[in-house]
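Hey,
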Amino acid sequence: MPTTLIKRSSSLKLYSVLKDRVREILLAGQKRIEREKLLAYWNTGKLVNEHIRLNEGRAEYAQKVLLRLAGDIVIDESVLRRTAEFQKVFPIRAPEHELTWSHYKALLPVKDASERERWAKLAESRHLNWHELADRIQKTRYQKGQLPIGIDDPLVEPKAGIPGLYRVIKSGDAFAIDLGFTSFVELSKEEARGLREEQIVRWGVSRKPVLVKSAQANDLYTYSAELIRVVDGDTLWMKIWTAPPIWVEEKLRLRGIDAPELGTPEGDSAKRFVTSVLNQAGAITITTTKPDKWDRYLSDIFLEMPDGEVIYLNNHLLAQGHALRYDRVRFEDWDTE
């Protein structure tokens, strides 16, 4: 026995032996870990679904119990939601299959069973990693924000305004331009001549407001922006050019979606994904919505990529499996710094 050990140890001087043994030990171990992860998620989903079924399968109860369970065991609700959906739509595949949890997340939005199975077999036969699989699904089924066939949950309907347009408001006896983000510019009597409250004007470098009769309210609050930093998968700090050279720094949350919490593998992956996409963008345009009185801003973000493609970030996260649809507003969504 000692002789064998010495022989194996000395053979490690050869790089080829090191490579083979690391492949044997590490990669095999990673496959076992991924398999156990899938089993854990599937069995968790089975428990959740059975509990909901025993409580008459009420949708309102399901939502409440997931929130309660997430708080009690300190896990993100979106993870529990995905495990429940995972168990409903997928059998656990045989161990020789190499689909990971990330592959299954990319497949979950595809509601048609035969189409989902086709994508799964393609991923296995061509050894696609989950990024490649998600990208192929996106390119085939997600075109410019339209609802993909077979997906029950609608994508976010984009809100895209026009930069440089502003609303005229009354400020005491004077008129002012609402730049957004509780920022205003008061107009002189000469500048305000002929204008009325609630009209929409173009206001730029010349600082002379020009009435735009064809503009509508949904054209407002749209700006060029620069990334300061990514907080998490759906929250960003941005430098926003409200009316160049005037700018503000604001914390924005992507409208209509919910990314997993930081500290989870899914949440950390979503943050890396958003960071990577934003760092590649050549130009960033945002349209903002203020949902409450606390000056917390939801945003639609559009990215112009180097090849000329424009990506709607909100739906891009959904299509790539890094977020779920979520239209409510929660105070804690703004807590993370």
